[in-house]
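Risk register update: the risk of archive-format incompatibility is retired. Evidence:
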Amino acid sequence: MKKQPIRLTNAQFIDPSTSFQIYFQHINSEHHSLHWHEFYELCFVLRGRGVNIVNGTEHQLTRGSLFLLTPADFHEIYSFPDEPMDIYNLVFSGEFLGEDIRELMFQQFAEYMFDMDVNFDMIESEFHLISSEAHNWMPGQQMMVKGALERILLTLFRAYNQQHPRIDEKDVEAQHRSIQRALVYIHHHFRDPLRLEDAAKQAALAPNYFSQAFRKMTGIPFQIYLQGLRLNFAKSLLMASDIPVTEICYASGFNTLTHFERAFKQKFGSSPRTFQK
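Archived output:
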């Protein structure tokens, strides 16, 4: 039976004085039901096997599995019988990430979830360093933790990039970096009341010029791009939960149910209610 997701907040899980927190989880048969977060979550499986269901899609977990969840994702996780999982779980706010790493990883809508067993020792040592810093404060703690976190994220990004090659770096430099900054913002705030003017502000561009530059870079207008993100999120939520269609409409960023239902049917060929059954 589908369940309604729980919202986990920064106040519940993150120390406001550090903007991060690290946990060691032992998952033994229990099912961590569908939920989403206000924060980022980076997890590394040390042992055991299980399943992580992200945005309605199942992913097998085993020793060396490394995955990153953003505030736009929802998931549930459980271990297989007699194969309990030990997991490092690092949660952090968006402000904890530097601008360079945010632009590198989030200008595209990527799913960062890989088997990193070949890099197991290196990644485990970085998580161990973060855990030691978190529990034994010393001067420079934030820099040490950020350094370890960014090394893990870059390893994850490179694994993704090997399977999904980007365009040449020279072409990346030729593109408007301000649009890349806006894309990072859009990918993490598409469920909010996001206007073209808000995205243009992130890019530090006039709205009219931003609109033209955005279409040139992505190939589609801003509003169509934004609506696509919202519809795909709604589709995943309809597949994974029993949340009423009206609530999914507003949770996905739409202002009216009529517009949501019309746009959903146009994109996916059926109404949201029919799709959820």
